[in-house]
Write a structure and sequence with these properties.
heterodimer; A: alpha/beta; Rossmann fold; 2 domains; 7 helices; 35% helix; globular; B: mainly alpha; MetI-like fold
Amino acid sequence: MTSDTAAIRIRGVAHQFGEAGDARHVRALRDTSLDIARGELLCLIGPSGCGKSTLLNVIGGLMPPTAGTVEVFGKRVAGPMPREIAFVFQENALFPWNTVFENVNLGMVFQGVPRAEREARAQRSLEAVGLKDFAQHYPAQLSGGMRQRAALARALSLETGILLMDEPFGALDEQTRMILGEDLSVLLSRTEKTIVFVTHSLGEATFLADRVAVFSARPGTIKKIIAVDEPHPRKPDFVTSAKFTAIRNELYGLLHDEIRKTMAEAGAGAAP
Amino acid sequence: MRPSGDEGRLASRAVQVAFLIALVVLWYLATTRWRVSPLLLPNPVSVARDFWEILKTGEFIGDLRVTLTELAAAFAIAATSGVVAGYLISRTQYRIRVFEPLFAGVYSIPIILFLPLYVLFFGLGPASKIALGATIGFFPIALSTIAGFGYVDKVLVTAARSMGASDYQLFRYVLLPAALPIILTGMRMGFTVALLSIIGSETIASLAGLGHRIVHLAEGMEMTQMFAYIVFVVAIAAILNTLVSALEARGRRP
């Protein structure tokens, strides 16, 4: 991959919470560099607290890095870029007082889409995630999986080149997550979106990603990048293939040591 | 097991009505069979007759107007200042840390103790009642406004910002709808305590108003009339509270 095809260019990004010496000082992310190509789906995976969500927030301009730079389509990120970047959060990021349709519409109001266009785009994106018949429901009336579909529809309606997803299926049960993963693969094979997807599920990462970036323990940085050479949309039987198992096992091996390190650090004071 | 749904609601209503009826029956028995002096407890039938008389002649209008005007003015001041102060405080964690416990502390003391001071400052007329009602009504409204605006789910704010919401849009489409139900509850509470303190202070030091009328009748030993006025005030308070609760429920609707 050459750098001029990169949609997202991350250079020497580090992030820390609080000042050094402060009791709440945490080095979340150290010296991370990465290029993400246009149309690529990159998964970030790592032990909890390794800074993968922090990196996502830095890319999206929700958090300024303490060092380094991020460029999106050649422009330096200094704050939210609603025309280029849309987010899907872990859960409950829908406005509970608005219907599904109003939620999708409101995102476009914020982004500045003209009124005349909004209705058609909302319909289209709700149809794409299979929620056409639930447009007038409130989030509380939907299951967790349907709420995340609605959040995805809201992000799709913004028609951004980049989609950042922060453990979007993290709160869902295994079956729902599998189905949503398959649907997402189909949906995304039809668009040219660049996607960064944070997950802690090895299976989800292997199934969805073009490349998986494995993080080291905190302060995290990318330890290794594994390519998943399998065309989208991915079929359910990809999960049972030898290739899937091999990649998943490789990820497991890489992650295992880092998780041990994290646990040892966390339990240093408490464990005998 | 507790009954549920419409049936349960109907059943609990029936119990509530039965309780009220039992109370009136006890009252009646006390004045007839148990011979409690009518100077202490007048007969409910004659109270009802006087109550009807008061309604028919419309002699209550003057006092009702005074009390309601005081209430309206006090509530308007309390609501405006409470919401503005609460919103400004809710904007930083530091201000919330300073003012929330302070307001909660002041609210927990009986502010009506300061009535003599209010009378000294504002006189015996409506102004002292308005000022006291506004002071007492301010705290629940300010506290609920702080709670409403101060504890909006962060992910909603982040989501709106990520989609490009301006400061105004964030307020109009996220903060306000998130805070409104809590603010409305605070307003209902503020309204109730303003009503209580206004009528209460009218009974202590005043020139007019429903509370004043009741004390005036008590001093003249007109017990039947006094009870009729108490029934009248209870009815007015019940109507106002029902009205305000209905408005609150309307505003809460998504």
